[in-house]
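User: quick one
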Amino acid sequence: MTIEEFRKHGHETVDWIADYYSTIEKLPVKSRVQPGEIFSQIPDSPPDKAEAYSTILEDLNTKIIPGMTHWQHPNFHAYFPGNSSFPSLLGEMVTSALAAQCMVWDTSPAAAELEEKMMLWLKQMMNLPKSWHGVIQDTASTGTLVALLSARENTSRHDINLNGFGERKFRVYCSSQTHSSIDKAVKIAGIGISNLVKIDTDQNLAMDVKHLKQSIMKDIDQGFTPCAVVSTLGTTGTMAMDPVPEIAEVCREFGIWHHVDAAYVGSAFLLPEYQHYTKGFETVDSYLFNPHKWMFTNFDCSAYFVRDRDCLIKTFEILPEYLKTRSRGKVNDYRDWGIQLGRRFRALKLWFVIRDFGVSGLQSKMRQHIGFSEWIEDKINDHSDFEMVVPRIMNMVVFRYCPGNIDPDHYDKLNEQLLDRINQSGSAYLTHTKVSGNYVIRLVTAQTYLEWKHVENVWKVIVEESEKIL
Amino acid sequence: MTIEEFRKHGHETVDWIADYYSTIEKLPVKSRVQPGEIFSQIPDSPPDKAEAYSTILEDLNTKIIPGMTHWQHPNFHAYFPGNSSFPSLLGEMVTSALAAQCMVWDTSPAAAELEEKMMLWLKQMMNLPKSWHGVIQDTASTGTLVALLSARENTSRHDINLNGFGERKFRVYCSSQTHSSIDKAVKIAGIGISNLVKIDTDQNLAMDVKHLKQSIMKDIDQGFTPCAVVSTLGTTGTMAMDPVPEIAEVCREFGIWHHVDAAYVGSAFLLPEYQHYTKGFETVDSYLFNPHKWMFTNFDCSAYFVRDRDCLIKTFEILPEYLKTRSRGKVNDYRDWGIQLGRRFRALKLWFVIRDFGVSGLQSKMRQHIGFSEWIEDKINDHSDFEMVVPRIMNMVVFRYCPGNIDPDHYDKLNEQLLDRINQSGSAYLTHTKVSGNYVIRLVTAQTYLEWKHVENVWKVIVEESEKIL
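Assistant: Done. Structure below.
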């Protein structure tokens, strides 16, 4: 493909993308294909000769699109979203074109310095502690692992890095509602999942600080070394908020690393009315949130902040001959700030998004999203056959179908059926969780291009499908 | 930004990209900016109001581009390349537009199934063992870590995942020429860098298998448990090739996990004339190579293969309520095949690249690249003031400037000066390594759009700059 052929096909692809977004509402949100259906349509062998781009685009339409769950469909209310936006898309196009390896400053100075500046912007926009140092990780899974490894090395004074675990018995604490990425990180870090202590939660599903303190003291008595506490702001199941200031107090008392995971909800700290949640952040050791969840920035983009930059770097630093550069020590070489050596120029899409929306544009979209959930909450409360399972926090509602004429023992099965019907309808995609052992439905209103008509539509679908069950 | 505004700006951005590639040769390959120069040009605060896209694009040109090192410049011969290509770029555009989270099959069936098929294509194209299972990781750093974690769990029968390290003393082996990502992975996995045994190399800088075996036996005697051996095909410094079949034999004898890192050179196994390097792969436990290095596929895209899929999955599996899906067990849920839960739809760009080039198109480009290095090797051998430091392997030459009238004690300084002059000239970008303690220059001819004129140019620059030193 020559440059001019690329220009032509690039224009075709931009049109393909614009058309995709123009017609996305006609597509079923959740793919209806069966296992193996797509696989069997792709030839078993690669072509020996070059194929025309028109053929590839045609196959994209006929073979791939039917197998996609459309994460950018306005009625995608499942999990947490992986938000894209048009300026973010344009930023990613430029990143792909520059295709720079941003491992060290020397290999792409602008990428390193724009990343540093964007992290300052985010701190300012969200009123995060000025003393924090920011870096972009790919995902919250990676950021969580980076946090636990830093905690591990901080606790062992970097001796595990050097000599391995030895006979240390570390313990990590999080609530029973915490995201599975903590479990995974504890495994990877060699701490062992049986040393991840799941702390009880209160009636709001937030961490019970008294139980945390008891657990820590008991562990110390039994010869364990507390290594880290992970607080969550906005749990995946129900958006529960752990009491960060109180947890911070306990961590300070016992000298334990405190990581705060605000993967989804952190974007909301753009709104002054939610910044009270950042109380206690001054003594937090590490913190992350994902602009790719609710700040309209393409996956992957996880903003990670630490108080002690030197500890972070010492945890990951390596310096082989072929990576020595003259600028070392004067600049940020971000390959030492995380797991991967190779890094994409992710700061660029953040820059595009923040400038294209403006801070006030981001804020008003988020406030609109919260208003959507508020409206659905009202509908649920007004409907005798539905109930809110936990109080709404921001733009997520957790509810269940509970018709009075049915034995409550059947509610789990009923809600599973309802969820299945909604998702099979193609009109919306929601997911479930369990609260106090009950099967319940979660609905997030956070899609970049979500409008009132879509919100009204999803409520209509929920009610209609519930009426069809009985 | 509305859809129609996106369409307009998308076309502008495609033109920007095409123009960038049309004029890239006029830009200095390595950025000439000083630390802080870009940072100071970006406002300290984010804009409150939305900005026009034309302003953003203008700032891209005036503020970012001067600070970029142009990895896609044909005369980028540094490190290993991070190759892009036009079909790959188009694939990335579509991936960004779909913006699907490919964590489990349910959230994007087509992504999971295309990934499975692409891994089959790669196995077929490169004559890799049919029994292997493939998955796309982001980088070789991640793939290496995944391999060592799998080895760790395999050795401990998944007890470390569960209970932590305990008193185990594991050892990992690699040659002294191995990439720093192994050091990093050994630290992260909790094994400790003092337990990474660097095996001597022979005159070709390949692992000395006799020394490997001695080290393993000595460690066993001293109470250590050998956990993994990492072989490298194509070391970063000099493209040295470890003797995989002999190492595989040792690993089999002692029951040790054998990981093969062919991050750069693996792409060359597309060429039947290099497939003899895959001898011994049948008993290899894990293997990776990066299509983003020399297979014209945008970073990030690392192809990772394992023999024992169950061990891989058992190492990373987690199953919280909100991630339970009906299809589980019938499909590949790739979030259990690596570290991150969130995953981009990376298979798409591979599909675009392989189809647009065709296998024969990929092969002929690679053969051309090897021919370029062959030509430079001849030039070096024909020039009395230069010498090849190690025999050329494929498309990398490692050489130094060694004028007869200068005391060899000054060669290190001289080559450092020469490299600096070449890179400062803006005409080419090369990097260095050390061989037997000597400072030497590496030159890779692997850029997607590298042509004869660029190859002649880099040799001209090398000679001219060398003549200016004295």
